[in-house]
Structures are given as structure tokens and as C-alpha cells.
Amino acid sequence: MAYGVGKQIAPEAQTEAVRKELATLIASPVFKDSDRLIRFLSFVVDESLAGRAANLKESVIGMEVFDREAGYDPKADPIVRVQARRLRTKLETHYSSAGQPGELQIVLPKGGYAPEFFIAEAEPAPEAPAQPKSFGKTVPLAIALVVLAVVAGFLLTRRSAAKAPSSRLITAYPGYQNTPTFSPDGQTIAFSWGGPEGGDPSIYVQRLDADTPRRLTNASARDRRPVWLPDGEHIGFLRDDGPDRFAVMVVPVVGAGEQRVATVEADSTAPPRIEWSRDGKKLYSSERMAPRAQQRIVEIDLASGQRRTLTQPGGATAVEGVPGDDELALSPDGKSIAFRRRSDAGAGEVFMARVGGDARQVTHDNSGIVGLAWSRDGQSLIVSSRRASSLQRLWRFRIDGGEPVVLTDASLGASFPSVSARDGSIVYASRYLDSNIWRIDLTGRAPAQRIIASNLLDSTPRYSPDGAHISFRSNRTGNDEVWITDADGKSPARLTNFGGPVTGSARWSPDGQYLVFDSRPNGNSDILLIPSAGGRTRQLTHEQSNEVLPCFSFDGKSVYFASDRTGVWQIWKQSLDGGEAQQITHDRGFAPQESPDHRWLYYSRPDTPGLFRLPLEGGPEQRVLESLPAAFWGAWALTGDKVLYFAPLPSGKGDPDELRLLDPTTGVSTTVTTTKFPPIRWDGVLAVSPDGHYALAALIEREGSEIHLQSEP
């Protein structure tokens, strides 16, 4: 059933029918776990039924639906526009599968927020082409030439006109439906999902014309990264098999009986993509030969287990700790590979090579890449990239060059594309993550309060030294930037304007006059300085390596930061006056912070649980906290002589969401509170006010991913 096709009616003419249809939409599977979109839809429908449709402006919806303060700037905070696009997509998905002729439809037209109401009609059948009239032999030659010219022009126009790709939802279940992949016949997809209860991911399959998926695996370990074998009757996937090790498994699509065919060594937090050769005899994947070594693309003979290395990301100068090569995709003819080569965790490029040949670079953006696929003709690559934005979009890159073409809207967060060999359509995961900043009263006299919010990422909160302002990281405008607001979260203002590269991790100078932060304006990450009142930035580091997570020394004359310039993440110290940086740690370090009494340098590690400290006057390293997960290297803050941190609940269930206070001298931790939502991972989470009264915490209120299908561009 077509969406928005039919006779438009006035809402007051069928108020009861409109409310009944609204209730049907809210209860439909498409809107399950979409509380904000339900609130959005209910508000605009209620206002229209009350005769106030003319008042449905972006600013009004922002305040009434998304709890924005009066006077907020919709140009700086596009939450309403972003959510309106998601709402339109869900409405279209619902009516394309569940709508019937004669039933009422609620439509949110593009370019506005006042809903329209239609009595749906069946799509008219295409008209039969008209029979050409005979002009006889008396038609002058000039008229005949004109007719031919018009027809030729029409045909040329038809051929050159670009057909806008259409898209629809395939899955919209709770949690993450991830890494979808097409079957060889293009009729079915396989994907990983934790199921309706949110457990460990398993492998599911779903036909494009089906309403529900079918579960294929049911192991106690995590099953991820499915891929179809060439016969279309089996699916390969990765199963956790110990620290930084995966078993490559094969399961039939119909029937039972799993088989283990290989093992690959890779980072447990980022399972590598796998591909089968077209004859089914070889396996391609990315693998590292030693802990913290760079990954490389390998070809594995399934009969003998022998490996052939296909890429060398750093050659003779490979740097330990740099991710290297992964996310490989085999071309349709099986003769070439494309892959991602990363210089750090958040930036990389796409390369391609003939199998066993030299690699050449395809992209030149040094941006975040989350999956890639070949077009069905093998002439282009479909890449999930943060090119010109901090949000993932699908781009088409021709392998012979040319200007890239964007295929999806940034609001979709498109990642892990797969292309159908049957019709060239694209299936991809659409990720959403809504993290907001909450203020927690550490005295326990007041409930926690959300004070900084958008529908996207808000993280890394930091109080100014006088406690009057808060800096934070946000991509609410589509790009990662540093923002500043007052202590109550009101009047947020963007401080930086890099327009694309990952930017954040800001910390205040002791006098509150400057902020130091990291960004990637030149590809690799560097440390920069900016006045807290706004102004020109000053770059402090100029190495070809990555420098991240800076903080000031207590006297404000130097900056600590983490750097991989030696091949391993270590803490370094750089004077603001210039000169050579001084290496502080020698057994890895990350996320440094000086203690308020200026006696200790605290830090975590990105690959090892725990919290560590070094005496600034010299002495051995101390491990003060064993239980801090590696993914929560930013989930701690110093307050006086104590450490505030997130820890797993005693039950061991769920994400860490218990806030504790540690006395490093005695090693005793006490529970402060339990937060309503879990903290964000792999980012800055906690800050404490200068007077120790409040904590700021970046908490994930909503996250997951859906699977979308888009026609061939």
C-alpha cells in the first residue's frame, strides 16, 4: 500500500478515527521501543485535532517534546529535524506493509510538522501505452523530423535522469541488529542480534518479504559477523573463543549441525569481517600475529590451515598499537579485495588490491569508516564514512576515481553495508545512540537530573575551575565539537568548529581561561588549545603519531596527554612554551589526570582493566583499582583524595551502573548511588564539581541499531 496516496480529509471530520489510528501506530511493531518518536507523533496529532496545527513550529516541538529550554536555537540543535526524518521513515514502513485501501493514514509531510490525514487508495495500475496514430504518407518531412527529435530528447532524458533510491525498514527490534549480509540470491539477509531479551548476540536470518527473523545459533558465547557461503545454503560466522581469539564456525541455513573450520586472532572488542572465496576453499580475514600488533589481511587455506599474508599496513615501520588493516570485502569476481587501513581507532582510509598484489588508496578523507562493500558491477565501493561529518553516511566511491556520491542521510547513522548481487540494493545497519549528561547530588539530598541533552552524543563533561560553566563534547549539529554551557546546562554554545573530524576530550586550565582538547584536522590526532571565551586555536603537538586525552598540570604551564609515538600508548608531558615532550609512563598509559594535591598522576589503560597512579616526585607505579573495565577508561574522576568511578553491579548483570567512591590509601570502596542508565563506553564519562557537591555523568538513555534496505543508487 502506498504511503500518503488517497483522499485528504480534515482532522476534525474524523477525530475518533484519527485517534484510533494513532493508537494503532503506537502499538505497532515498527514503533516498539521508540518512546521519543511516539511522543513526537502524539503531540503533533493532538495539536492538529485541537486546531493548533499552525503553531507546530520546530522551536515549539523542541521545547514540548524534547524538553529544550525556551529560546533554544534550532539551527544549533537540529533534534526536531533529525527526529522528523526518522518518524517519516517509520510511518512509511508501517503503511507499506500494514496499510489497506479505505483505511485512514497519518502522514508527516516533508518540509513541515503538521500531520495530514488520508483515506488510503490502492495504487493505480500503470496505464497501457497509447497506440501511435498514423499520419499517412502526407506528413511533411519537417514535421516528422520534429517528432523524431522530441522522442529522442525524451528518451535521452529518461536515460539520464537519476532515479532517487527508495528505502524501508527491515528490522526494528530492541537492541542491536548488526552487520547484515545478503544471501547470494538476494532474497534473505543474515545478521547478529541479542534477541528480544538483550542477551549475547546470535545469528538470525530473515527473508526480505518476511515479518520476523529466524534464529540460527544458540550458543553460550557471542556469535557475530555472519557471512553467506557461495552455495547459499550455509552461513559462516565468528564465535568468541577466548581472549582476542575467535572460532570461525559454519552452520546450515536449514537443518542442524555446526562445524568449526578455522581460528583467527583479533581484538575481542572488534571481531573481524570474514569472507569465503568463490570456490569455498579459502577464507579471508584480518588477523594480528601478536598482542597489540597491527592487523593485516590474510588468506587461509581451509584444507591445510596455511596462511598467506596479503597486506602489510606499516611495512618495515609497522607501529605496535595502531589498528592496521581490517573490514575486508571480496570483489564480485573474487579477484580483488578492498579493506580499511586505520591510523588510529577513529580514522582510516579504504584501500584496494588484486588478491596478492600491491594496495592502492581509494579514499582520501582519513575519517571514521564502519564497513564497506562492492557494488554488484565491481566498479564502485559503498563505504560507511564520516566524510564531511561526524555521523556515518553511505558514500559511493568509484574505483577509477571521480567525486564521491553520498547515498544516505546523516541522521540514519548507516554502517556495515551489504550489496545484493541480484538487484544492487543495499542493506545496512542504522545505529542510534542517545547519551545525555546528568547531574548527580553526591550528598544524596536531591534526585539526579538531566541537564545537557540532545538526541545524539553528549559526553566528556568537565566543570570549569570556578564551577560556573561546563564544557562537553557533542555531535548534535552533525559534527563532533566542544561546547560550553552554564552550570545548570542552560545556554549551550559551540566553542569549536572543525566541521568533521573527531573532536573532544576538553579540559580546563587552572585559571579557567583556556581549554585543551584533541582533534584530527590533519588526519592524525593532535592536542590543541583554545580560549574558553572563544577565539583562534593553537596546535600544541605536531607529530605524525596520535596524541589524545590532554589535561593541564596544576601550575597550568604544561599539558599531559596520551601518545602512540613509540608504538604503544604512553603518557607524555609537553610545556606550553614548546620544547621536547617528556615521556612519563613506560608500561602504557591513557587518560591522565593530576591529583588535586599535586602528588600523583592517575591514568588508565585502553587495553587493561584497572586504574593506576605514579608519584610525581618519582617512584614505582601503583595499581589502585582492579575492577575498572578497559572500556571505561573515562569512567572515573578525582575528588579530593578520593576516586569516583563506575563499577559493575554485584550481580554481574548488565552494564556498569553503580557509582562508587574509592579511598586509594585503604583500597576501600563505598557505594554512592546507582544510576538510572548505564555510562557511555570508550569516552569521557565523569566529572566532579570543585566543591565536591555534584558529579556529572554521561549516561546512555537509548542505543541500538535497525536494519534498512535501500534500492540500488
Can you give a write-up of this model?
There is one protein chain. This protein is mainly beta. Among the domains are: 6-120, no CATH class; 433-704, TolB, C-terminal domain (Neuraminidase, 6 Propeller), CATH 2.120.10.30. The strands form 12 sheets. Strands 4, 25, 26, 27, 48 and 49 form a 6-stranded antiparallel sheet that branches. Strand 46 (658-663) and strand 47 form a beta hairpin. Helix 1 (15-27) runs antiparallel to helix 2 (35-49).
The class by helix and strand makeup works out as mainly beta
CATH superfamily of the domain at 433-704: TolB, C-terminal domain
Tell me the distance between the termini.
Answer: 23 Å
Radius of gyration from the CA trace?
A: 28 Å
If you consult CATH, what is the topology of the domain at 433-704? Neuraminidase
CATH class of the domain at 433-704: Mainly Beta
> How big a fraction of the residues is strand?
35-45%
**CA-based shape:** globular
Q: Give the beta-strand count.
A: 49
What is the mean pLDDT? Answer: 87
Given as residue ranges, the uncertain stretches (5+ residues, pLDDT < 50) are 125-164
CATH architecture level-2 label of the domain at 433-704? 6 Propeller
What is the helix content?
A: 10-25%
- Major sheet description: 6 strands, antiparallel
Question: What is the number of helical segments per DSSP (H or I, 4+ residues)?
Answer: 5
